[in-house]
Write a structure and sequence with these properties.
Elements lengths: L1 H15 L3 H25 L8 H4 L3 H17 L5 H15 L9 H18 L9 H5 L7 H22 L4 E7 L4 E20 L20 E16 L4 H25 L5 H26 L12 E2 L2 E2 L4 H4 L7 E5 L2 E2 L3 H8 L5 E7 L5 E7 L10 E2 L10 E2 L1
Parallel strand pairs: 1-11
Antiparallel strand pairs: 1-2, 2-3, 4-6, 5-10, 6-7, 6-8, 8-9
Helix pairs in contact: 2-5, 4-8, 5-6, 6-8, 6-10, 8-9, 8-10, 9-10
């Protein structure tokens, strides 16, 4: 029996490499990297991170959470109808083509697929499908509790991915405030691909335990396959440090996923709870997005001109500034004892001593600290710091 399960699981893994979502996710990750680099060069005449940054984030964390969720789906025997997997894949591709990464949250892709399934059960019985027709003919109930459980699991993973991964390497940009001042804003856009083991009806695998599968479809035989699920995220931050805002979003999505999963499990015994859980997931995720957006806009702009000195909008990786331990959001008040108020004064003060620089910095904890470093020829023009002062930008106004 163990050998049979192993062989079927290996066959199921092969599905991953012929699934179009795998290749769509790679293309989309490269596309948002190119768009980000173009914006960074327009704002700062330099790209802060490589075009492949988003692509490198696509799989490592996604595979990790795919394995974690697969332990649950394999352990419980979570059975998903093939029609649902086809619909989720098609909806995910359509949402990905918009390049609006937030719409790739499972709250949208899985919820839309769930309600499409309800519509197809009600009105699609006589439709002749050109592809996958056999899958849609097997739709025999309007509500599948396992789909709601899948939504809760994916939302839970999305929250952790946001809190742990989306906070890494956010991209700075410049915008014009309503007062006509150039201010800074951070953007984080991510896409992750989770390869997840699920079971579909059909096959001849014997059950390893009397109670398996827990979440089944009328005792049907099952077959394991690996399906890629896309999770996207997008958030713009201008009222606080990006790490603080993005982590807060992640915690809220984790909480939402926990609630959705708890209600969805109840739907296995009371089907209408599945509908409630999916609706909660969809509405809750949309509320999180708009409440975070409104809260951020109501705050004073964080990366704007400071009376204390010149605020650091960004630190370019692998530069002297990063090696000095300077961080975004900090304020440089003095260089070699000279008070500075903008970027021009900053570099003018650096030229006073071409061999060494000592910076007085007000940290994000409001404490003053000092950093210093020897300078080499030409390095004072390439410290790797980004500022909002003395920059020009044509864009929409922000609050």
């Amino acid at each position: 029996m163990t050998e049979e399960w192993l062989i079927e699981c290996l066959r199921g893994i092969g599905i991953l490499f012929i699934h179009p979502l795998l290749y769509v996710s790679i293309i989309i990750a490269l596309a948002i990297g190119v768009i980000r680099v173009q914006r960074e060069r327009r704002d700062f005449n330099i790209s802060i991170y490589r075009k492949s940054t988003e692509l490198r984030q696509l799989l490592p964390q996604g595979i990790l959470w795919g394995l974690i969720l697969s332990l649950f789906t394999l352990g419980t025997g979570l059975v998903i109808p093939p029609a649902v997997l086809v619909i989720i894949g098609a909806v995910s591709i359509l949402l990905a083509l918009t390049l609006k990464m937030r719409f790739l949250s499972p709250a949208y892709s899985v919820s839309i697929s769930f309600f499409l399934l309800v519509i197809l059960y009600t009105y699609g019985g006589e439709i002749e499908w050109p592809f996958f027709g056999e899958y849609f003919r097997d739709i025999d109930t309007p509500v599948y509790p396992t789909v709601a459980i899948l939504l809760g699991l994916l939302l839970f993973a999305e929250g952790f991915l946001i809190a742990r991964n989306a906070i890494k390497k956010p991209s700075p940009g410049l915008v014009i405030s309503k007062r006509g001042q150039t201010v800074g804003r951070y953007s984080s856009r991510r896409i992750w691909m989770l390869p997840l083991f699920v079971f579909i009806p059909g096959g001849d695998l014997p059950a390893p335990f009397d109670w398996f599968p827990v979440f089944s479809l009328d005792g049907q035989s099952i077959t394991p396959i690996v399906i890629p699920f896309l999770i996207g995220f997008s958030q713009k931050v201008q009222g606080m440090l990006p790490e603080t805002a993005i982590k807060a979003s992640g915690r809220q999505v984790i909480l939402l996923g926990t609630v959705v999963l708890a209600v969805a499990i109840g739907g296995y015994w009371y089907p209408y709870m599945s509908i409630i859980s999916v609706a909660v997931g969809l509405i809750g995720r949309e509320c999180i997005y708009y409440l975070r957006k409104r809260s951020d806009r109501n705050l004073p702009i964080y990366f704007s001109r400071s009376k204390l000195g010149v605020r650091i909008l960004g630190v370019i990786p692998d530069t002297p500034a990063q090696k000095m331990g300077l961080e975004l959001g900090e304020i440089v008040t003095k260089i070699n004892g000279i008070h500075v108020t903008d970027e021009r004064e900053f570099y003018k003060a650096l030229q006073k001593n071409r061999a060494h620089c000592k910076l007085e910095v007000v940290g994000n904890n409001q404490q003053i600290r000092y950093v210093q470093r020897a300078l080499f020829e030409g390095e004072h023009h390439e410290l790797g710091l980004l500022f909002t002062e003395n920059q020009t930008k044509e864009t929409d106004q922000v609050g």
